[in-house]
Each structure stands twice: as C-alpha cells, then as structure tokens.
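Hi! If you just cloned this repository, the fastest way to understand the data is to look at a raw example. We've pasted two of them here, unedited. The first protein comes first, obviously.
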Amino acid sequence: MAPTRKATHAGSWYTKSGAKLDEELTGWVSAVKSTPELPLEFPVKGCKAIIAPHAGYSYSGATAAWAYKSVDVSAIERVFILGPSHHAYMDGCALSTCTEYATPLGSLVLDREAIKELAATGKFLEMDLQTDEDEHSVEMHLPYVRKIFADKQIKIVPILVGSISSSKELFFGSILAPYLASPSTLFIISSDFCWSG
C-alpha cells in the first residue's frame, strides 16, 4: 500500500490554508441561488452524479459550486471520482494504491474494498504514487468533497481515465454501473469542458 497521497496542487491551483479554503468554498456554495430565470431546488433530490471542472479554483471554483450544491449528501457513503489523465498515457483506467488522500480540510479515506473488487476484474491498471500525485483532475474535487461531507465519514474511489475508445467507455461503464445504482454512491465526473459559467 502506498502512503497518503499529498495535496500536491495546494498552494498553486488552490490555497493550502485550510481556513482560507473553507471560507472560499463556503462563499462559492452560498452564492449559488435559485432565480426567477433559473428556478432550482437545492440539493437535487436523487442526484447520483455530477460533472464539474478541474481547473484552478480562481477559474473554476465558483462554477464547481453549482454541481456540489446539487448533491444531497444525506444517503451518500461512497464517492467515485473519475478524472482524465493529463500526464500518463494509458489505454484504460487506473486505480490508486493509496489508503487516503490529503486535503487542507482533512483527509479522505479510500474505499479499499471497492478498489479491490474493481482490481479483481483484471481490467484496471494500478496507478503509482508519482502518477497519482502529478495528476490534478481528481485532486481538484477533493476539497469540495471534504467540505460537503464535513459531518460524514465517507469513502472515495478515485479512478484515472485514459484515452479510451467508445467501446472501452461502454465496457468500463458496464463494470461501474452496479456501483452507480447503489443509493449510497455518488459519481463525480471531472471535466475540462467548462471552467466558468
């Protein structure tokens, strides 16, 4: 087992101060409001998945807040975080070997049982610690996850997604579908598609 994954992008992509980070996240989430033009109810009942950006928080923090405010945390016990690989080429998906991920707001424990089940399929690669810590696409969601689940001890399942074909997307989707179907599991899809409003 690898050690705790450090918050390697804290201090550059977002603040490393826990107090300042908590203040920023609180401000961004509080600013998300329903309007007459966009009547919404938060949290969204039955929300099972969100798509949110993974740019630096100065670019994407306020946008990501819309996704995170949508999450109904009451029944959630486990969070899958799927992030695209920017530094390591892979024709597949990779699992972390760490037992926990650090954030300036506190650590998040990995669901080693679920990771073991996925690894047992023989279809996932194993991510080394260097690859894990170099990648930002999963890390940029960790402070928000720790924040919205501040009063709960949830577990996470980070998955690094490589450059895969449509058929492999369907294949990995079929492996992950039973987890998505669980009422206690949330999926976060980390994306470059939109950094701001």
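Ok, and the second one:
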Amino acid sequence: MEFLCAAKEKKRSFRVFVAEGAPRYQGHALAKELVARGLQATLITDSAVFAMISRVNLVIVGAHAVMANGGVIAPVGLNMVALAAQRHAVPFVVLAGTHKSQVLCPLYPHNPEVLLNELKSPSELLDFGEFSDCMDFGSLLHVVNPAFDYVPPKLVSLFITDSGGHNPSYICTGSLRTITLLTDDLVVQRRPVSGN
C-alpha cells in the first residue's frame, strides 16, 4: 500500500482495480483503505476479472507461500486472475518476503497442484438460514470453501521480495543454490586455545 501512496506523491496517475475477494470480501476493505488514502480505486466482482483485465497494466498480488519450484500458494481465485493476466499479456507480479519461500513446504510436501487445501467454513458462503434450507437436498449438495489456489510458475512474471525483484526461475534455482551454499559453507572449525 505504501508504494502506491509514494507513487501518488510523485504525481503518477493511476487507478487500482480491486477484486472483491469473495466470500470473505477482503477487497472491500482494501478499496475503502485506498480511497481513504486518496487513491483512485475501482471495485469489481471476482467474476468480472477476465472482462476487466484488458484495462489493467499490471497485476500485483500477495502470497501465502512461494514453493521451491517458483509456484505460489495464494488466496483462492488468484489462479484465475493469473490466467486472465497471461491471456491479455498483463504482467503478474507476486509480492512475498523471503521468509515465505519454501524449499520443501511441510504443508504441501509433494504436488502443490493437488495440495491439501485448508477448507473454510461453509457458513462463509451460505448463512445459516440458507444453509438449513439446502439441507433438504440431503447428500446431493456439498458446500466447499477452499482457502488457497496454486499458481504455477509459468503464470508469474516477477517476484518482488525483501531482497529485490526475481523471475520465477531464480526462485527455482537461485533460492535453492543459496540455501545449499549456506549449509555447505557452515564449517565449524575449532580455534586453537592459547595457553595462558
């Protein structure tokens, strides 16, 4: 958010498009905060992302975790945004601290595309009254509310971390090399004790 405010102070002209982020609607709060800081914002429904992406120059998102292969575990719906961005040749930038990079993330240890997703309460999708009405359908209706999406590295244009900007191939090879070098370089040598 601060980088947007800094851009505004430099008299840059821009508008921020914000997807609503259903079912928890985090986008509503973000749009309100942007407007409160004097930034132009347009709030759109999640389903309108593909229709509106051609009006966007850059997509900037956060990440829950960055996998060793350069893929991203992100809030649900961001894979759809990344696909729309790729289709319209809009750069898809992921902001993540290096503490979110995972050599082997214990939450998603094998195949991130079929990750064991955290499921949120169905009550976020249906209120109790609606949900109790749906119970009449018995086992025909299941309400599933996943928390995360996997965005493959081929859809990511750039990672911006606390150590700078990196392309996904750096995350795949550079991070692993850095960690390998650090563990290889940690050679403990005894210092000779001087006899006093």
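That's it. A detail worth noticing about the second one: The two ends are 59 Å apart (CA to CA).
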